[in-house]
Amino acid sequence: MVNRRVETMEENRRKLIAAARKAFAEKGYAAASMDDLTADVGLTRGALYHNFGDKRGLLAAVVDQIDTEMALRAQEIGARAGDGWQGLLAEGAAYIEMALDPEVQRIVLLDGPAVLGDPSQWPSQSNCLQATRQAVERLIAQGVLKPVDAEAAARLLSGAALNAALWIAASDAPREVLPKAVEAFAALASGLLKPSA
Question: Which UniProt keywords apply (predicted)?
């Protein structure tokens, strides 16, 4: 009996996140109606409040889901790049490039910061930061990067990628901004490289 209730709650949560993701992408956070959203999935506003507290809590869950997907996609791209250094650059460039995706743009890069505040404080960004820190630590241990503080370097790299993505999302010409942002990100990151002996 308890298991079925938990399954129903999880199913309701998934339905609400999927419906909100669609509504926020199509209409934006401010214009998305919670009554329409809950009716579309056959649930009440009570289910929304029970699972997320309010509309803002629902946005936080959607942003977390998309931001987590972005980080995983960037890590997969980085893993295919060959060595750790190229992987770190590819990961950053991939994250920046995702700012061209209309769903990412609207929900994560425009509405997310406007409603939820500083993205560097989001749990999903914290997970991404830890993965970057571990990559930096490995590269320092391998002698690829200068022996700088790994957390500081990871925060600066993550911040640069995030701010580049925010710039692209807010730009009137995102496709023109993208190559400039990726090139500058690579140049900044290259400053961490240890000079070859």
Answer: DNA-binding
